[in-house]
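Example record

The entry below shows one chain as it appears in the dataset: sequence first, then structure tokens.
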Amino acid sequence: MGKRVLIIGGVAGGASVAARVRRLDEQAEIIMFERGPHVSFSNCALPYHLSGEIADSKRLVLMNPDKFDVQYRIEARTNSEVIQINRAEKTVTVKNTQTNETYEEAYDELVLSPGASPIVPPIEGADNKHVFTVRNVVDIEKLNQYVQQKEIENIAVIGGGFIGIEVAENLAYAGKNVSLVEAQNQVMAPFDYDMVQILHKEMMDKGINLVLSDGITKIEDQQIELQSGNKVAADAVVMAIGVRPETTLAKQADLEIGTTGGIKVDHNYRTTDKNIYAVGDAIEVHHKITGQKTRLALAGPAQRQARAAADHMYGIPHRNTGVIGSSGIKIFDLNAASTGVNEKQAKAAGIDYDYVYVIPSDKVGIMPGSNVMHFKLLFEVPTGKILGAQAIGKGNVDKRIDVIATMIMMNGTLEDLKELELVYSPVYGTAKDVVNFAALVGLNILNGDIQQVKVSDVRELVENNAFIIDAREKNEYEAGHLKTSKNIPLSEFRNRLDEIPTDQPVYVHCRSGQRSYNVVASLRNMGYDNVFNMSGSYLGFSLYEYFNDQTQNREPIVTKYNFK
């Protein structure tokens, strides 16, 4: 007789545990409980139903109870909510949500995969019928049916994380007037403030009314009120502020909760009860880089946790390497991805770090579809150990971030990344790929071969009338430049050294940073010690400054922006 394994929650983590247990034990009795009407649905794809990209909501459901039974001999009970864990008896109490009848089921092993619940702030109007959250297929169907009414034109999305942005994007594609409200000063917390300005501009360019540093305080019938007192038109409101781990059952069963609010588990994802495991959004995990406890609501880690938990039930060892948080998103015409820690996280963890921000081409420039890629790479000082990366562009940012994620998991350094051999074809990339290029620049910084100025410091340099060289050609300079810069092109600077001072700092930029690097390197060889390459160069300056210039009615530091 095989084990009797009960699983609470039937989406990514729960369904994966069930499938793995079946592969390990054909005799096991496996019952999976899901309080909603669907199991194994694509949570991350829910927003794409709003634009019609996934026209039929039934496609969001990947498996149904009949298929689980026929293909895997797994009993998937929908509309079945586990309301209590009885640890002493090793049973759970289940309520049929359609009939309200309750019953008990015994277990040998119990797995908690309840996920996380959307956060809805306790504000006036939060329970109105035109206020929605997005957690499951039922939620997205209700929202979609509501916004398709012809009188629903203005929609406010509250929260600038993955779900909020994807919902806003797809509602915009559906022809709605969308406002996205974020209480912080930026969307997409995995990205640093300098990089996220690119995303802010993209959303504004595509018609999203992006409201930052302002939280919601009240919901009325056709508008919302913000902390600033401003009001935003809203015939419908989508709450996407974030999620909190669903730990109600665990707390009631007196299982230990971790410092982050997630269920505490050991390296095999076993709770403080040896017969109860927990996986997915509800648990607390170990961050590989910071060494600290964290929570990570991502499907990939949940899948790996599920396999590890099932394996441990059958004595199969597991090496828990922790998490690093790799994720990606499409925002209109841009792709964005990140992995590891960003600057905020590195500072909070007390890590001594530096970074490189480069803007190379994502494929050979003469090839159709070639575009720049904004790439930021963080590394530890003095070891050169790779800590994280962020990439934004129209090309394959996910490929580059996957490379960095792999390097981080292998404890790779800038030297390792520099020597990494990758696939090359003009249609896919460049002979010196974006990630190799970033490693080379990072080593120049780490080894002290070059000094850099961050894109966030450029405004101060301009306002203080620092000596800035624009190393682009004259026609590029005339099309737009920093207001206080002097045009000394790469092709001319050796004949114009008398114009470059030796008694004050010299700052050099071009369009994307490559020509200016050559100028800086040559000047250093000539004895100029106080010379700096300006990270990001003119493309980076324009993108970093634009959104705040427009929304704050701020005096630009450029004569004209350049985004290409």
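Notes for this example: The chain is about 25% helix and 25% strand. The mean pLDDT is 95.
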